[in-house]
Amino acid sequence: MANKLPKVPVVIVGMGWVGGIIAAELTKAGHHVVGLERGKSRSTQDYYHVHDELRYASRYELMQDLSKETVTFRNTEKMRALPMRSYGSFLMGDGVGGAGVHWNGQYYRFLPYDFQIRTMTEERYGKNKIPKDMPLRDWGITYDELEPYFVKYEQMSGISGPQELPDHVGKMSKPFATPPMKTSPGMKLFTDAATKLGYHPYIIPSANLSQDYANPDGIERAACQYCGYCERFGCEYGAKADPVVTVLPVAQKSGKFELRTHANVTGIVHDGKKATAVQYVNTLTGEQFEQPADVVVLASYVFSNVRLLLMSKLGKPYNPKDDTGSIGRNYAYQVNGASTSAYYEDRQFNMAMGAGALGSSLDDFNGDNFDHGDLKFLHGANIRFTQTGLRPIQYQPSLPGKPKWGGEFKQSTLHNANRILGVSGQGASMPNRYHYLDLDPEYKDSLGLPLIRLTFDFMEQDVELVKFIAGKTKEIADQMGATRTEMNDVIKQYNIVPYQSTHNTGGTIMGSDPATSVVNSYLQMWDAENVFICGASNFPHNSGYNPTATVGALAYRTAEGIEKYIQKGGSLV
């Protein structure tokens, strides 16, 4: 029997970037907020000894315990899905701050094209350009409408970047909060080569601070030390923006925020029109609780948002057979694999130094910034050179054709450790009718609840995109003065190993049509007006970018929408 608690105005499920932003904004406005996080609490002091590659990068200290809850995976409906038993393709964060603690900090606004992708594609190429089984959706919001919320996120987190970006990337009403990061020798080679080819490279906007910074909320943080321990690690300097050092202190200082850790939410109580409460289990004691609330905010990771709705029977599950329902539809990933390695015999670089978002990139072949008329794919990729800091345990570079173990392998890796630069493309992932999320009928978590099941594979769209973008990476790498270059232009059947990116999207997509989307432009649920769902699960497709900037901007807009709902109620659109 669940212990029923006193009603609160707002309850937030998940305390990562989204939960932290919404908690900070609502408490600043005077509302009492309860935040539920299934993992443990964290502070900057927890990262003082974080430079332990084995503990954090190899043994996944900051990640979800897969022995208690995981995902199951299959390529098609004809296959039996099996659980992901060890980490591979993506890394799901756990604890206060979520994936916002272990991210790299690469910050990209989605392109104007992304938000109106169906309309713009049809206008330029006609309806027949979009494959039959590619359910492209406009997002129900434009870049210009979302732009002020990008600015809010950038000023809060202290994004470091150029004063302006190339015009085809998107107009900015205000420069980034701090100047760009340093330019490494590898970045200069990439920039000079791309410029010589007529492209438009720029330093990657970064949530790793280029200088000391105090944000509009009075939060002060120190500059990046370029130590290279960003991805899979917390930042002991607080230089990498994460919820623990930016938005959560604001909510906690307000006196109107209550954070409950080890609170694993298992269901949403509702009457079919509104939610009345959430149910959760204290994972330390096994106690069950019911927390009534006027507003329920789902702010957890993609898989958790979708899973909670499906377990709660809130909203109509997606059915690929007849293309009906919306919960679980339009799952998309990220298309990596297009790359070229540049090998230098007569020059060395300090590859151990770096930062998660240190690098240069270009978007000449991203979105619809180039003509797709004769190409067999839509969208494109951000092409980049990054110097994230290559740590000694996991970085073991060797030339193609060399042994993967033994004395010759050791000699090769030592020789090449500072002689290889990589140019790569991070490609967009378009939705497919048969790519979706649902509940696994067989496998359950440690509480006896069904796991989320992922059905996904790479399609001809992805194969053609990788082939095209790989050619562009080689073109640039060949201009960088290397002794030799080696290109990879092949992408094969998707597998849940090895690691590729944590950029999962879709499942609770936004849009203007309740029949094919889950939430409106304020991320208010069509089927329950007091439920707001926020995160990358709202994306109808994935861009050629990292998702965090767009997740953060949408969270600020959602906080504004919740404030409006508290005042007036009803649908916000």
TrEMBL record:
KW Oxidoreductase (keyword) present: yes
Gene3D superfamilies attached to this UniProt entry: FAD/NAD(P)-binding domain (3.50.50.60)
InterPro entries: FAD/NAD-bd_sf, GMC_OxRtase_C
UniProt KW keywords: FAD, Flavoprotein, Oxidoreductase
Residues covered by the Glucose-methanol-choline oxidoreductase C-terminal domain: 448-555
Transmembrane feature ranges: none
Protein family: Belongs to the GMC oxidoreductase family.
Protein name (Swiss-Prot/TrEMBL): GMC family oxidoreductase
Native organism: Cohnella boryungensis
Highest classification ranks of the organism: Bacteria, Bacillati, Bacillota, Bacilli, Bacillales
